[in-house]
Specification:
single chain; binds flavin mononucleotide; globular; 13% strand; alpha+beta
């Protein structure tokens, strides 16, 4: 990580590294199935479906496996940010890092299946910041088609 930038990483007491494991869906399927059977959430027929469907889906993703794993990790990071902010903490989603170096720090340098999705330092803000405001919804929200901005 470059020295003069991204001071929040060294200033925050905790930084969460959200990493996506491309092989996790298949690796974790067995313990998830065991859990779901124990809790009664899934029956044998659901389990049999997932046993076939999950590996098939993963294989069908082809070179999008990494992208899909990252989506999952980003969803997890968003929940962490919402929970932390709701407790009065401050957070910062971060893309400004060098993947190989982050992987080295967390001891995953030699794991090609692990992709770094996002970093989130968490702590109490040293000072309050003014909210810069948000663009009107019509910039980013559309109804039915992308040519039809939501006007409220
Ligand atoms: C995906 C993503 C990556 C970001 N990466 C960085 C980063 O590397 N460094 C940084 O200072 N801010 C980064 N930001 C911006 C901050 O996380 C934060 O969103 C921004 O300061 C606005 O915060 P606010 O919406 O609470 O005002 C990133 C934001 C997003 C959504």
């Amino acid at each position: 990580m470059r020295k003069s930038y991204q001071q929040q990483i060294v200033q925050a007491p905790v930084t969460f590294v959200f990493a996506a494991n491309v092989s996790a869906p298949e690796k974790n399927l067995t313990p998830i199935i065991e859990q779901a059977l124990t809790s009664g959430a899934w029956n044998e027929s659901t389990v049999n479906y997932f046993k076939t469907a999950v590996p098939q889906f993963q294989a069908g993703l082809g070179d999008k496996q990494r992208e899909y794993a990252i989506k999952d990790a980003i969803i997890a990071s968003t929940h962490l940010v919402l929970a932390a902010e709701s407790l009065g903490l401050s957070t910062c989603f971060m893309n400004g890092w060098i993947e190989d170096q982050v992987k080295e720090v967390i001891g995953a340098a030699d794991n090609p299946d692990l992709a770094i999705a996002v970093l989130v330092p968490v702590g109490y803000a040293a000072e309050p910041r003014l909210n810069p405001g948000r663009l009107p919804l019509s910039y980013n929200v559309f109804v039915d088609r992308i040519s039809n901005p939501y006007l409220g």
